[in-house]
Amino acid sequence: MQIIHVAAECYPAAKVGGLGDVVGALGKYLNLAGHRGCVILPKYQTQYINRNSWKKIFTSTAALGIGDFEYSIYANENQVLGYELFLVDIKGLLDREKVYGYEDDNTRFIAFQTAALDWLVKSEQKPDIINVHDHHAALIPFMMQNVEAFSSLKNIPVVLTIHNGQYQGAMEWNNNVVLPQWDAWKWGLLDWNNYINPLASGIRCAAKVTTVSDGYLHELRYQSNGLEKLFEMEWAKCSGILNGIDTLVWNPETDAALTQKYGARENMHQKSKNKKTLCEQFNLNFDKPLFVFIGRLVGEKAADLLPQSILNSFHKIGRKMNFLVLGSGETEVENDLNYLKLFSENDYNTYIGYNEDLSHLMYAGADFILMPSRVEPCGLNQLYAMRYGTVPVVNNTGGLHDTIIDISEKNGYGIKMNQASENELIFGIFRALELYADPAKFEAIKIQLMQLDFSWDKSINNYIRLYESLTLKN
Question: What is the distance between the alpha carbons of residues 324 and 284, in angstroms, rounded to a whole number?
Fold first, then answer.
C-alpha cells in the first residue's frame, strides 16, 4: 500500500510537540513494514529544512478564494529519513520560521491543504490511503469529496488522526471565501456551532477517525471542547491506536546525546553518569533524587502547578530532592519558574526553551519524570522516560492511564496521581521518595521499565490493519 500522511509537523523537519514525532515515525515504520509511507509537510524556514538539500519536483498554481497562488513541491534528495518527505512551498504563507502562531494561520493551512491536493491531482497520483493529522489537515476529506477540482481523489479513503482534540481550527464563516470552490449545498459538513470547524468537518467526512490512545478516545466523548455530541454521533468509525516510540532514535545504548550510554542488563549503573553531568551543569546535588519536567509550559500539561508545588514540596517534605525543568510556553509560568532559582539550595534549576539534546540527557539522567497533565491524549514523554529507566509520576488521564501501572498494583512500575492538583503532585513526589529509599525495589523497577515494549514495531501493525480494512472495501 501507499499511504500519504499530511500534517503540520514531522520530525526532524518541523517539530513543536508529539505530533511531529508520531508523523515522522509513521512514515519510517510503514516503510520498514514493506509499505510506502510518505509525508507532505509545509516548507517552513526551520533549521533542518534550511540545512538540507531539497529537489524541486513540481510547480503549479491553485485557487485561494477569488485569486490564485503559486506553489512548488520539493522532495528530500537523500533517503536518510527512511521515508519520502515532500515539502509544499508557498511564498509569503508557509516560508516562515515558526510552525504556528500567526494571525493568518487559517489561510496558511487552507492553502497548504489545497496545494497538496492540487499536486496529487495534477501529478495523477492515486495513493491507497491518505492519513491526515489534526485540524491543520482535517479539511482534506471535505475537499476531496466536495471540490470539483479534486473529484479524481474522492474514492480514496481518508483517515483522520486526532492528536489533540482541544485545538480545532474554528474560524468565522467569512473565511469560506478562501476555500477552493466547493459545493455550497454541503455547507453543513463544514459548520459546527455557527463556525467553520475543520476538526469537526474531518470527523464527519473521514472514512475512519483514530485517536492516539484508547483512553483519550473515551475521554473525548465527554470532554472535547464542544464536540462531545459529534463524537457520539460518529462513534462507530472511531478507534484508539496507542502511539509508539521510535526505538532507533530513543535508545540509551546508542544515543549520542548521552554522557554515558547504557542498557537494561549489562551496564545499568552507568545511567548515573548522565545524572552527574546534569547536576554539574545545573548546579544540583548529585546525592539527591532528581525529578525533571520536560515539555510545554501550558495549562494542558499542568505546568502552572509546578512553581508552587516545587516550593511547597520543599516546605512539606524537606529539601530531599532536586528539580530540573525544561520547556517554554506561557510567560507567567516561565517567569515563576525562573524566579524559583532565587530560592535554590543546589536543588532546583530550569532551562527555558527547546533543546533536543538536553531532553535526551534529562530522560537518561533523571530518577523521576513529572507529568501532572490535565490533558494527555497519548503522551510520549513517559514512554521516552521509561525507555531510559526513569520512573514516571503522572496524572491518571488519557494515554497516561493506558501506559502506566501504579507501583501499588501487581507488576506496577509508575506512580499515578488521581487528579491534576498541587496536593496530588506533592503526594506523588512523596511516594517517589519512598520508592527511591528502597534501592533494591527502585533498581528492579528501572530495569523493568527499560524492558517494556512501547515501540512502533508493535503500534504500526494496528495502523496497517486499519488501512487494509479500508482498501478491502474499495
Answer: 9
